[in-house]
């Protein structure tokens, strides 16, 4: 018999969402929007689609671009397209508006006539979830018509929207698990956390760094709870702001986490519970169990220094992000071991060997260059002492793929200056060096060295005027750069002409 595999969509258990107050009700009137706190995406995080009704629709007035440096949030929120945007409020939705450190969902809305609209962002305004709907064809009038209050629509998470949400849920639920273990096992409160852009590791900020043993023990315990598949559920009741405890503040003055947003007007108090592990107020969407989550902690913490206090970041991965991270790091390792022709475990040793050899090779090249510079300058000095001209003039052109060809030319010039005797004739030497690959963007470095400032300046001025060499100098040295192809018959010939015209 042939094997078959049936892929079942996971579903949220009926006891996931619990209304613990006898008076809190989910509005059933389709003309009223259900407040953020008890939206469908929060009651049933695995639901992908809902039939619902338009409550209101307004044309979005684009906010002024934020000035100054971009906030971390800007990385996560998809940028709004330049098309017109409608701000649509629905009776209910599966598209989560950003909150609790969890970024916005993206999704689609299908209107009555069957047209599919992209929801590029969803935000909480007061207590309401607002869908930012892109009007791709720019026809605002017909878009407003499609979203007439009272009309029936389908709000959905499309494939990309669901993948994005599933990743966010995996990271957010693991953050609750991780923060609870850090708090209860090591007395480390979570000061803040960041759900970074996929596929980067997320992090929690804690008051101090952790040892590798501490990190491993927390990871082991987290994964024991994952293996058990501890259940997660939500409890909601009416919000009584007077009963809310203020956010705890450490001795250092740092607040522990964030309290309920000041501007939240939804009137719902929502608590996320991981059975026997954690109970935390949060508006985010959370997986119904820890099953299959697998938490991986990067085995180090990064120290952070603020003006008066220090803290540390502990990075973590879970769910789809952990798989993406494993695939990419494995690929890096395999690619590197192929380059080094060794097995993966030998990579660190081989890399440090290569680095060490390179350092040695660089030093040797430096030593050899100094030695060679002496020989070249010795030849120049003997030609200088045998010369019968009033001013000894010479051009030497080299082809050199060194990363610092000017350094070598300077070594030659220095060795020459050091060997010049007082009785020797005045001289001016032009040294140039091009790379072996000549293109219109290639650079040739040029160095002028001479026995007096006037000769050097005359040569430098002429190089600038006749060859377009950009540079400058002081005293007996002048250096510059020529851009383009350096030809023996043209550029070197011009240099010869320049030297010929220089007189004392
Ligand atoms: Zn949360």
UniProtKB/TrEMBL annotation:
Q: Which GO MF terms are attached to this record? A: metal ion binding; nucleotide binding; Ser-tRNA(Ala) deacylase activity
InterPro entries for the chain? Alanyl-tRNA_Editing_Enzymes (IPR051335), Thr/Ala-tRNA-synth_IIc_edit (IPR018163), Transl_B-barrel_sf (IPR009000)
Q: Which residues form a coiled coil?
A: 351-378
Highest rank taxon of the organism = Eukaryota
Q: Which UniProt keywords apply?
A: Coiled coil, Metal-binding, Zinc
Q: Which PANTHER family match?
A: ALANYL-TRNA EDITING PROTEIN (PTHR43462), ALANYL-TRNA EDITING PROTEIN AARSD1 (PTHR43462:SF1)
This protein is called what? ThrRS/AlaRS common domain-containing protein
Organism, by scientific name, is Dendrothele bispora (strain CBS 962.96)
